[in-house]
Amino acid sequence: MKTKSVFLSVALSVVCLAASNAEACTTTIVTKGASADGSAYVTHSNDSFSSDPSIVYVPAKDHPAGAMRKVYPSAIAWDDLPEYECYSNPRLVAPERAEAYVYPGKKQTKPLGEIPEVAHTYAYIDSDYAVMNEHGLMLGECTNNSLHLEYLEPKEGRGIFYASELGRVALERCRTAREAVQLMGGLIDKYGLWGTGETLLVADREEGWVLEMQPTPTGKGGFWIAQRVPDGEFFVAANQFRIHAIKPGSLDQIFNPQLPDMLKKAGWAAYDKKGNLDWVRSMKAAEDFHPYFALRRVWRALSLVAPSSKLPAKVKNWDTEAYPFSVRPDHPLTLAEIMDLHRDAYEGTPFDRRKGENAGPFALPYRYGKTKWERSITSSNIAYTWIAQVKDSLPRPIFWLAMSAPAESTYVPLAVAPLPEAYAKNDRAKYDPAKAWWISQQVTTLTKGYYSAMAPKVLEAAHKGEQRSMELVASASGQSKEEFAQTLRGNADRVLTDWRGLYGKLLADHDGGHGLEYDKAFQPKADKVLKY
C-alpha cells in the first residue's frame, strides 16, 4: 500500500501492558555503532500473565490482484473480546495467516476490518507482537499510560488497528525501519487506532526508530510521532512515552503534519519550558500502577550501559527531562551484556529487589498479590524475551528467545524460518512436557521457590549454553540460509533437552531440602527448646 508523502521524520520504541496485569514490558534498541560486533539489536520482554507464549513463523505469500487483508483484534491490548472470538490463548485463530494459527474446533477470530493486500508479503516471526522479518526488519513494543485516555475499546466506526497488527503489516510489507514507520503512520491516519498508548521500536541494519502512538477520543485517525535513535546510541522504553519536543522540519522525526493542530483541537496540547510542543506532556504520560514503575527501569538501563552519565535515580515528576532520549554506551555492548540487562533486579543499588524483608528468606526479586509494587527490568510475569539481531555476516536474521523470565531461563537463537514444533501452540492452560513454554516453566517455577539457592546454578547453566550457541552462530556464518536455519533448529532442540535435564538435576540435588540454605541476609532465630 502506498502511504502519503507528507510525513516529516522518525523515532520508535515498544512496551506492553495488559489490563489484568500489574506489570508490563521493557524494550530497547542497540544501534550497530553501539554494539561490540556491529550488529543492530532490538529487545522486548513480553510481561503479561495473559500472554500467549506461542512463537509463530508466518511464511511469505503471493496474493492475487484485488485481495484484501483482514485486520484482527488482540486480547493483549487489554482483555478478551468474546464478540470477536478474540482471547488471550490462543491469541489468534486465522488459518489464512499461518498453519500455527489453525486450531481445529475453535471458532475463527473475527476481523475488525480489511485493507487492500499487496502482491507479495514477506516471511516473519510473530508472537503477541510481531518480532522480525526475513529482511532483518525488527520490532519491539511497550504499552504506555495516558491520563487523557487509558483505553479505547474497538467498536464499529472507530479505528481498526492496534499496535500488534500494525507491526505485522509492517513486517509483511517493509524492508527498512523508515519505510515501516511511514507505512504504520499512514495506516493510523487512514484507518485509525484503538486500544492503549503504545511504543513500537523499529530498526534495521542501519537505523533505529521509536514510534509512539495514542488513540484519539473519537477513534478516528490517531496521534503518532517517531524519532530516530542516533547511530552509536542505546534507547530504552518502559511503559511511558519517551519523545518530548515535537520538532517540525527535523530530519530525525516523522509525524503527521497535522499533529500539532490535532493536539490543540483535542485540548491536549502542552509545552515545555522553551515553548516547544511536548509529546510526553501532551499525552499526560504519567506513571501507572506505582511511582517509578517506568522511570526507574529507564534510569537503570541507561545507567547500566553508560554509568559515566551519572543519571539521578530520583526525579521531580513523570514529565522529567533528566533522562536523555538515548545515550552512547561507555563501551560497545556485547550480546551477553544485552542478555543480562533483561535479567536485572537493581543489584548493587539502593533499590535491589533481592534485599529487604519483602524478598523473603530466599531473596526473591519478585512480589505477588494485589499490592502495587515497584518493579525491576526482570519481572515475575515475563512470558518471553526476544533479542532480535541483524548483521550482514549472518546467513539469515536471527532472534534470541528466552521463554519466561530470562533471569531463570536461557536464550536460544532461532532464524526467521520454520521453527521447531516445541515453540508453536504453547497452551498455558494445559501442561505439555514437549513444549518450550513448559520446559522453561519447570525450571523457572522451581527456582522462584528457592531463589538464592538455585538462581546462581540456573544462571551458570544459562551462560554456558548461551556461549555455546554464540560460538555455533559464529561458526555457521558461511552456511546457506537453509543450512543455517536447520543448524539453529537442531541447537534449539539440544538446549531444550539440556533444560529438561537441568530441572531434573535441581530436583535431585535438593531432594528433601538437601543443600538448601536461606539467604545469608536472612537469619531465623533458633527454636526455643525446653531443658529436661
What report would you give on this structure?
With 532 residues, the chain is α+β, with helices and mostly antiparallel strands. Helices cover 23% and strands 16% of the residues. The strands form 5 sheets. The chain has a 6-stranded antiparallel beta sheet. Strands 10-11-12-13-15 form a 5-stranded antiparallel beta sheet. It is globular. It starts with 25 loop residues before the first strand and ends in a 23-residue tail after the last helix.
Write a concise keyword list for the protein shown above.
5-stranded antiparallel beta sheet, alpha+beta, 532 residues, 18 strands, single chain, globular, 6-stranded antiparallel beta sheet, disordered N terminus
Alpha carbon gap, first and last residue: 88 Å
Spans with pLDDT under 50 lasting ≥5 residues?
1-22
Structural class: alpha+beta
How many H/I helical runs? 9
Number of strands: 18
**Mean residue pLDDT:** 93
The main sheet orders its strands as 14-1-2-16-17-18
Shape verdict: globular
Q: What characterizes the major β-sheet?
A: 6 strands, antiparallel
Write the layout of secondary structure elements.
Blueprint: E1 26-30, E2 40-47, E3 56-58, E4 61-62, E5 68-71, E6 113-116, E7 120-121, E8 124-126, E9 132-133, E10 138-144, H1 163-173, H2 177-191, E11 197-203, E12 208-214, E13 223-229, E14 234-237, E15 253-255, H3 259-266, H4 279-283, H5 295-305, H6 335-341, E16 382-390, E17 398-403, E18 412-415, H7 436-449, H8 451-475, H9 481-509
Antiparallel strand pairs: 1-2, 1-14, 2-16, 3-8, 4-7, 5-6, 8-9, 10-11, 11-12, 12-13, 13-15, 16-17, 17-18
Helix pairs in contact: 1-2, 7-8, 7-9, 8-9
